[in-house]
Batch of 2 targets.
Target 1
Amino acid sequence: MKYFTRNYTYNKYDYDMSMSREELEHLLAEKKRRDLSYSRILSSMCTYPHEVAVYAHKLFIESNLGDSGLFQGTKEMEDEVIRTIGGLLGDENAYGYITTGGTESNIQAIRAVRNRKRKEGLRVSDMNIIVPETAHFSFDKIADILGIEVRKAGLDQQLRVNPDSVQEFMDDGTICLVGIAGTTEFGQVDPIRELAEIAKEKNVFLHVDAAFGGFVIPFLPDRARYEFDFSLEGVSSISIDPHKMGMSTIPAGCLLFREESYLEELAVPTPYLTTKEQYSLTGTRSGASAAATFAVLKYLGSEGMKSIVDECMRLTRFLVDGAREMGIEPVIEPVMNVVTLQLGDADRIASALRAKGWEVSTTRSPKSLRLVIMPHVTEDMLRRFMEDLSEVVN
Ligand SMILES: Cc1ncc(COP(=O)(O)O)c(C=O)c1O
């Protein structure tokens, strides 16, 4: 049982001493106490996974989708998740896989287009993509990893990307446009229909980053106002994250393409595995979080997901109303469960709130206090938060 004996010195750390199970549990409990509890977190786009997600995750803990022939039950669940999420996003015949999250999905979507365009003879150094100024920082990683230029288009008054600005940035090297359905900082939805029309007219790939909003918008009462998915002809691919509003376990993202040929652009041969090729970015891949995603979707169904979104939106309005009573206005009227409050000295207020035990964040431009009303947030939590907010602003 003891892998590391007292005589075994691996390096200067503690591996030279083994621990009893009891000591280990004690140590783990101590580390767990140092983690924050979500009951004080208003800055994260993650939350407690649903109880059925945890159950499924544990049941499939050893499953590796990187060698899916060995784990056929898990692979069947992944395939069903892809069909279900595809259906939720307007195309149940979409092609894709469960990624590690929004970053991998975004990287892989752009990599697929880059590979296609490279085959068609365009030099990578001549390629560019156009993203909104509000794009998640995963697009900065994309510029670095894929070696293509990332151009940032301007916004309108409501912090949505301005289609005219997108068009101004386009040239012969533009291989992809990106629209965001649920911006990280403001929860805003870009005019995806207009981007889809530009993409169609100019024959350019359009990727929609719905990492956050993908599990929110379809359940909003006014969802028809926010067209963003495959029901728009020009939309080529979508990122959507089960480990955010999908209440699955981490890591669970999802990348979908309308056309199978783009998924194939990502394939590399895998000679010694049970499958012939692999299109994921990582090799070994969590089957547990795929099972967790499958479990949540099956168990909650769209009614269950809708009631979670309904409650998050009720609390979002509760917070905005409370802030207005204090004379504080939101930067935009919330579209989804992200509230940004206009406060001249947002950084000072965020620090004062942190001193009172609240984890909050601030936006870059315009500067504001940012609060994400995830499923772990309760009315009681918001009441206590608002009491503290009113103390620190006065
Ligand atoms: C819109 C958007 N895209 C992508 C990401 C990156 O997702 P992940 O952190 O799961 O890689 C985020 C994360 O917050 C996001 O909000």
Target 2
Amino acid sequence: MKLPQFELHRPTTLAEARRLLEELGDDGSAFAGGTELLLAMKLGLIKSRHLVDLKGLPELRGIELRPGGIWIGAGVTHHEIETSTAVRAVLPQLAAMESQIANMRVRAVGTLGGNLCFADPNSDPATFLCAVGARLRATVRGEPAEFGAEEFTEGPYQTALGPGDLFLGGWCAAPPPGSAVVHLRMKIHERPCVTVAAMVEVGRAGVAAAQLAVGSVGPKVLQVDLGEELRGLRGAGFSDRVRSLMALLAGSIPLLPERQESPDYQRHLVRLLGTRALEAGLAGAHL
Ligand SMILES: Cc1cc2nc3c(=O)[nH]c(=O)nc-3n(C[C@H](O)[C@H](O)[C@H](O)COP(=O)(O)OP(=O)(O)OC[C@H]3O[C@@H](n4cnc5c(N)ncnc54)[C@H](O)[C@@H]3O)c2cc1C
């Protein structure tokens, strides 16, 4: 596999990066860590002759504590998120999830933006960010745009962004008091074949809210609001309802064709990990 020749452009402002990408059209690609892009170019799947390097753009770089939550720029690497004291303070499960991605070499250069914009279905962050209700910001045709994490990915290798659009970063609100976030995954080869994330919130009368996101099996993350189904439950009543809900969900979730794992095995993993994530969410949620 040989990397085709390309010209590297190094804009210093977001406006310059956008202008370059617009001018280059199909012949240009945004370039962050390059862990997906360069591989896709070697395989001839992406044929851009111009790469627009986003690493010099300060607007995409920061992790910031903001009132009520945390902002993570598109160009922040997985390793920076995993080791950030700000992330650990607001959403430690995000740091823990990031620490499981790939290996140290990929995490040191691969960015959150590259992960979400490449939209490989086997993504940990895409699933996690759906469960915690993250908001993703971008410039679309030069205008600011905001998406729920669940609407950003439209299918395998497809996002809501078009040519010349740039993902800017994601906002995660701090989980509400009395809640717990759990991210589970199963990995057979390099990347996860099932990812499940749950956020469970309890009140005095048992469960008050519950979100579940299931990714890496279907064309996009399936996000389900289980608040109505689980509200007021605790103990054995909660476990029984979760088991029957997960059996239904695992039986009906759309699966990607031509996976190495059989459909039955994938559905089994969805049921198992979904049940475990919700149970662990309830066990970890305290008022
Ligand atoms: C061996 C290996 C194992 C992996 N394991 C996992 C895993 O366990 N879990 C997991 O979730 N992921 C995994 N990954 C995926 C990894 O997380 C991504 O490769 C990485 O995050 C991509 O980021 P990057 O900065 O290198 O993106 P790049 O390769 O630079 O870019 C990827 C794509 O996104 C576009 N892009 C990048 N930034 C922007 C932006 N700001 N706006 C618009 N478009 C943009 C590029 O044009 C390109 O199309 C693995 C990858 C490898 C190679």
